[in-house]
Design goal:
Strand content of chain B: 25-35%
Shape of chain B: globular
Shape of chain A: globular
Radius of gyration of chain A: 20 Å
Number of strands of chain B: 13
Strand order of the largest sheet of chain A: 1-2-3-4-5-6-7
Helix content of chain A: 25-40%
CATH topology of one domain in chain A: Metallo-beta-lactamase, Chain A
Helix content of chain B: 25-40%
Distance between the termini of chain B: 60 Å
Largest interface: A-B, 19 and 19 residues
CATH topology of one domain in chain B: Metallo-beta-lactamase, Chain A
Structural class of chain A: alpha/beta
CATH architecture of one domain in chain B: 4-Layer Sandwich
Number of helices of chain A: 10
Largest sheet of chain A: 7 strands, mixed
CATH architecture of one domain in chain A: 4-Layer Sandwich
Oligomer: heterodimer
Number of strands of chain A: 13
Strand content of chain A: 15-25%
CATH superfamily of one domain in chain B: Ribonuclease Z/Hydroxyacylglutathione hydrolase-like
């Protein structure tokens, strides 16, 4: 094989690899959800009448009542039918409510499918962001502070505690079961601030302080496995420590590269490529 | 006729008379199936917005090309008339019913709407309905603000604080600058429902918050359509009652003396709901 051919082949491979990375890492929002993808999800029982659907996109939570099903988040558009099938495997009740924890397309992708037959509810900011981003499946009903759904003698509480992942993250609380669906202010890939949609690293910890006032034992995070309360306590500690660390290092005169090193070495939620990737924006936010 | 028979017959008549008075004077909140005839009139307020006045509280009807949003639904016996009045101006179905508070002259038809109609109120209004064993409790509640977006139109429902009850919402139509105040503005002098969490002390501040909205036209809970300036007049009258009664309490005036003043100056007849529901509660609240 000539050297030229080798170089050409290598560049081709690098190019293909780059395209593959770009493809798989593309943000799931909006029209990107319309890929002819196969749904790949599992439903598992978390407690009486409460199930988690985990696999593609954000985690969905299914709460079964004798007057219908309350669903939290609905993944990508191509997951819609699979969500319906998974719900059907545990109940004959129809999906009456879909609660969106935030705007992103990996949590709201099947909204359009459910909109004619279910009430979809989100925070006012989440809806504003969807409208701004021309996302499909915009809901009819929004709230600012708290909304509660009473269905079949059961209660679900949806609350907004402040900025974090975006400016419109809601958590969904099941008081009778002491379970919380946290959305992405508790996603297991570590704090990832969407600045374009009003997120804040500075306020994230205080937002989780508010969430932790709720009395729950179990957390269904926005992404990742079903966890215990301690998971969200640790999460809060890290979300609080990240901005504090960045601020104090900036004060010590440390540059971006030195700060980035801190978030690539420690491991766990702390070793967070999201923080490294968004360090410019985080540093800009913390300057104010 | 023997004397015994006369006594017995008289006693029967008195008992029947008392029963009749008790029946006709019973507060409408019980949701009783009265064989009453509805008597209402439909008025156009502005483009696509109508008001139904007559029995019970004033109803607002907002027409969109995806369905109708209704504010309050009078007594149970008004349901058919409300639906007929709506049909006279649009073929669209009623999709949302927004209750300004729990009283049966504003929520009386709730139970007759089909499950596909979403009924929304504040969390406290729903709690009051459950405590009072009223039919047709809403499935969706909020604490601070909820917005309904339908057919490209927006309706905003806000809780500004205590007043008539502890769960009064106002309904704002931003595009039309119209506000339905519920019973936070109704008649000329306030009815403070202390058993429903009402407060004379907080009522003026609640109206102050509401007046920050950009409003031109007001649909009060009861009475004719009004202007924004009328909210201020009403608010000042509420404040005057509070100040005057507080002053009399400080001067150690007797209950009867105070009762006479509120009757003469504010029209609180001893047999009326304002006196029966609000008087002793008002004295207790203002003594604190």
């Amino acid at each position: 094989m000539s050297r030229t051919l080798l170089v050409r082949l290598s560049s081709l491979l690098i190019l293909l690899a780059g395209a593959w990375v770009a493809y798989t890492q593309a943000p799931p929002q909006g029209k990107d959800g319309k890929q002819a993808k196969q749904a790949n999800n599992m439903i598992s029982k978390v407690a009486d009448d409460l199930y988690a659907i985990i696999g593609d996109g954000g985690n969905s939570t299914v709460y079964v009542t004798n007057e219908g099903v309350i669903l939290v988040d609905d993944k990508f558009e191509y997951d819609g039918q699979d969500i319906v099938d998974k719900v059907k495997s545990v109940t004959n009740q129809p999906i009456k409510y879909v609660l969106n924890t935030h705007l992103h397309g990996d949590h709201t992708g099947s909204n359009e499918r459910f909109l004619p037959t279910a009430e979809i509810i989100a925070t006012k900011n989440a809806r504003d962001n969807m409208v701004k981003n021309k996302a499909p499946g915009v809901m009819r009903v929004v709230f600012t502070d708290e909304t509660d759904i009473f269905l079949g003698g059961k209660e679900v509480r949806m609350k907004y505690y402040g900025r974090g992942h975006t400016n419109g993250d809601a958590v969904v609380y099941f008081p009778a079961l002491r379970i919380l669906a946290s959305g992405d202010i508790g996603a297991n890939n570590g704090p990832n601030v969407d600045y374009a949609n009003g997120g804040s690293m500075k306020e994230w910890g205080a937002t989780l302080d508010g969430v932790l006032k709720l009395d729950f034992d179990t957390v269904i995070p926005g992404h990742g496995p079903v966890s215990k309360r301690q998971y969200l306590i640790d999460y809060r500690d890290i979300a609080t420590k990240i901005p504090a660390t960045v601020t104090s290092m900036v004060r010590e005169g440390k540059g971006k590269d030195d700060i980035a090193k801190v978030f690539t070495t420690n491991g766990g939620l702390w070793a967070n490529p999201n923080v490294v990737n968004k360090l410019d924006q985080i540093m800009a936010e913390l300057k104010n | 006729m023997s004397r015994t028979l006369v006594v017995r017959l008289s006693a029967t008549f008195i008992a029947l008379g008392c029963a009749w008075i008790a029946y006709t004077q019973a507060p409408p909140q019980q949701g009783k199936q009265q064989a009453k005839q509805a008597s209402n009139k439909l008025n156009k307020v502005t483009d696509d917005l109508y008001e139904i006045e007559g029995d019970g509280g004033n109803v607002a009807v907002y027409i969109t090309n995806e369905g109708v949003i209704v504010v309050d639904d009078k007594f149970e016996y008004d349901f058919n008339d409300i639906m007929a009045k709506i049909k006279s101006v649009t073929a669209q179905p009623v999709k949302y019913v927004l209750n300004t508070h729990h009283h049966g002259d504003h929520t009386g038809s709730n139970a007759q709407f089909p499950p596909a109609t979403e009924i929304i109120s504040t969390a406290n209004a729903r709690k009051n309905m459950i405590d009072g064993k009223q039919p047709g409790a809403p499935r969706v509640v909020f604490t601070d603000e909820t917005d309904v977006f339908l057919g490209g139109k927006q309706v905003q429902m806000r809780y500004f604080g205590r007043g008539h009850t502890n769960g009064d919402a106002m309904v704002y139509f931003p595009a039309l600058k119209v506000l339905h105040t519920g019973d936070l503005m109704a008649g000329t002098s306030p009815l403070i429902d202390y058993s429903g969490g009402g407060s004379l002390k907080e009522w003026p501040a609640t109206l102050d918050a509401a007046m920050k909205l950009d409003v031109e036209t007001v649909i009060p809970g009861h009475g004719p359509i009004a202007k924004k300036a009328d909210i201020l007049t009403y608010r000042n009258n509420v404040e005057k009652l509070r100040t005057e009664v507080t002053g009399m309490i400080r001067q150690n005036k007797s209950r009867d003396e105070i009762a006479k003043v509120v009757q003469d100056k504010y029209g609180w007849a001893p047999t009326g709901l304002q006196f029966q529901r609000g008087f002793d509660g008002m004295l207790a609240e203002l003594k604190r």
